[in-house]
């Protein structure tokens, strides 16, 4: 995977046209998570830490409660 952005406590990676966001999901110690995101979310996540956080929360909610776009 190729790193294309580092900042706001996240790293955005690209591999074979797919994009991934790596972030620290640990509370007491580091626990790095990687989620696949869309190309438009890549642009949004690079704008600010709050924008990146909103994307992370969106995917965490989908993992916990399922997709809302059914």
Name the features:
single chain; 70 residues; alpha+beta; four-stranded antiparallel beta sheet; 34% helix; globular
Layout of strands and helices, then pairs:
Elements: E1 2-7, E2 10-15, E3 18-24, E4 32-37, H1 39-45, H2 49-65
Model description:
This protein has 70 residues and is α+β, with helices and mostly antiparallel strands. The chain has two helices and four strands; from the N terminus they run ββββαα. Strand 3 and strand 4 form a beta hairpin. The chain is globular, with a radius of gyration of 12 Å. The N and C termini lie far apart (30 Å). The model has no long low-confidence stretch (mean pLDDT 92).
């Amino acid at each position: 995977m190729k790193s294309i952005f580092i900042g706001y406590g996240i790293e955005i990676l690209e591999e074979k046209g797919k994009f991934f966001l790596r972030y620290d999901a640990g509370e007491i110690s580091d626990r790095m998570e990687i989620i696949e995101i869309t190309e438009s979310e890549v642009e949004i996540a690079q704008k600010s830490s709050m924008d990146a956080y909103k994307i992370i929360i969106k995917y965490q909610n989908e993992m916990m409660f399922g997709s809302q776009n059914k």
